[in-house]
Specification:
The chain is α/β, with parallel strands linked by helices and 384 residues long. 37% of the residues lie in helices and 15% in strands. Strand 7 and strand 8 form a beta hairpin.
C-alpha cells in the first residue's frame, strides 16, 4: 500500500485553470479575485462581511486587534488547539488563560468556562476564543449567553469546521462562522483544510465597524477612503491611521480558494461518509473511543480523532505499515514557552488525559475505500 497521510489536499483541473487564468490576467494580487472570494465566502457562511488575509494566524491576530485586545488584557481559550490560537493574544500584549476541555467533544468545557469567569472579579477577562476542534461546532449560543453576561467579546476559531452547523435553542441551524453568536469568526486555507488555497485565511463578521478596522489593519493601517483622510493631495494620496500589517491575500490564492469553496459541500459530505464507515468499524470495540456526535450538530470532520489505551504503540504500528496518523494537539499549556508563563502539568487534567490517548486517522475526501479498509484493518489488528 502506498503511503496514506492523515490529511491531503485535492486539486482538480478546475482549480488549476482558475490559477492559470489569474497568472494570465493583469492582477496577481490586490485584484478582483480577492473581493469575489470574500463575497462568496460571506454568502456561504451567511455573514454580512468577509475579509481575506494571508493565513489563519493572521486572521486570529487581526481579530484580536480589532476587538481591542492590548497590553494586559486576559483572553480565555482552550489548550487543545494549534498554538496560533493562543499566540495571537500574546502578539497583542494580552494574556492567555486556558479552560479545560469537555471530555466528550474535546472543545472548551462551557461549564468550566462559566465557573472560571464567575470566580474572577468583574472585568478580569475581555474575550473568549472557542475552537471548533476537528470540525465539531461549538455551541456558540451558550458561549454568547455567558459572554453577554460578563461583557466579553467572542472570536470563533472555525478553522476546522467550514460547512458544519449546530442547532440552537430555537431549532435554527447556525452555520459555522455566521457570527450570529460571535463578534468574529476565523478560517484557514492551509492545504490539509477543507478549502486548500495553499495558504490563506478569512475573517467573517456582521459588525460594520469591525469590518472597516480589519480592512485597514490588514494593509499597514493605510486608508485611501476620502471620508477618512485628514488631508487630500490628489488621487495618489493615502494615510496611515494605525499600526497595521501586510496581511493581504493574493489573487492567485483567492482564485484557488474560490474553486475550492464551491466544492465545500461535497467535501464535507464525503468526510462524513468516511467518518460513518470508521464509526461502524470501531464503535463496538471497547478499546477505541470514537468521536462524539449528536443530531443537533453537523460535524465537518476536518479530523477523525480516536482515543486508544496505547496511542504511541498504535502510531508506530500504523507508521510501520505506511499509514501516517497524527496527533492533534499537544496541550498548549505544556509547551516549553507556556510553561515559562507559569503553566504546569496537572493544571488541565482532561486535556492532558486526552492528549495521552488521542490519534487522528486519515481523513480527506479522496481517501479511497481500499485505503480506508486498510487503515481500519491495521487499527483493529493492533488494538486486538
Amino acid at each position: 500500500m502506498k503511503p496514506i497521510p492523515y490529511g491531503k489536499q485535492f486539486i482538480d483541473d478546475e482549480d488549476i485553470k482558475a490559477v492559470v487564468d489569474v497568472l494570465k490576467s493583469d492582477f496577481l494580487t490586490q485584484g478582483p479575485k480577492v473581493k469575489e472570494f470574500e463575497q462568496e465566502f460571506a454568502k456561504k457562511t451567511g455573514t454580512k462581511y468577509a475579509v481575506a488575509v494571508a493565513n489563519g494566524t493572521a486572521a486570529l491576530h487581526l481579530s484580536n486587534l480589532a476587538i481591542g485586545i492590548s497590553e494586559g488584557d486576559k483572553v480565555l481559550t482552550t489548550p487543545i488547539s494549534f498554538v496560533a490560537t493562543s499566540n495571537s493574544v500574546l502578539y497583542c500584549g494580552g494574556k492567555v488563560d486556558f479552560v479545560d476541555i469537555d471530555s466528550k467533544t474535546y472543545t472548551i468545557d462551557i461549564d468550566k468556562l462559566e465557573q472560571k469567569i464567575n470566580s474572577a472579579s468583574q472585568g478580569t477577562y475581555k474575550a473568549i476564543i472557542p475552537v471548533d476542534l476537528a470540525g465539531y461546532p461549538v455551541n456558540m449560543e451558550k458561549i454568547k449567553k455567558i459572554a453577554d453576561k460578563h461583557g466579553l467579546k467572542i472570536i470563533e476559531d472555525a478553522c476546522h469546521a467550514p460547512g458544519g452547523y449546530f442547532v440552537d435553542s430555537k431549532g435554527n441551524k447556525q452555520t459555522v462562522g455566521n457570527c450570529a453568536y460571535s463578534d468574529l469568526a476565523i478560517f484557514s486555507f492551509h492545504p490539509v483544510k477543507h478549502i486548500a488555497a495553499g495558504e490563506g485565511g478569512m475573517i467573517t463578521t456582521n459588525n460594520e465597524e469591525l469590518y472597516h478596522k480589519l480592512i485597514e489593519l490588514r494593509t499597514h493601517g493605510i486608508t485611501k477612503n476620502p471620508q477618512k483622510l485628514t488631508e487630500n493631495h490628489g488621487g495618489w494620496y493615502y494615510e496611515m491611521h494605525s499600526l497595521g500589517f501586510n496581511y493581504r491575500l493574493s489573487d492567485i490564492h483567492s482564485a484557488l480558494g474560490l474553486t475550492q469553496l464551491r466544492k465545500l459541500d461535497k467535501s464535507v459530505q464525503r468526510r462524513q461518509e468516511i467518518a460513518e464507515k470508521y464509526n461502524k468499524a470501531f464503535s463496538s470495540n471497547p478499546k477505541i473511543k470514537i468521536p462524539f456526535a449528536t443530531k443537533s450538530i453537523s460535524h465537518a470532520y476536518h479530523l477523525y480523532i480516536i482515543q486508544v489505551p496505547d496511542r504511541k504503540g498504535l502510531y508506530d504500528y500504523l507508521k510501520q505499515n505506511n499509514i501516517f496518523a497524527q496527533v492533534h494537539y499537544i496541550p498548549i499549556h505544556l509547551q516549553p514557552f507556556y510553561r515559562k508563563l507559569g503553566w504546569k502539568k496537572g493544571d488541565l487534567p482532561v486535556a492532558e488525559d486526552y492528549y495521552d490517548h488521542a490519534l487522528s486517522l486519515p481523513m480527506y475526501p479522496t481517501l479511497t475505500e481500499e485505503e480506508q479498509d486498510y487503515v481500519i484493518e491495521k487499527v483493529l489488528e493492533f488494538v486486538k
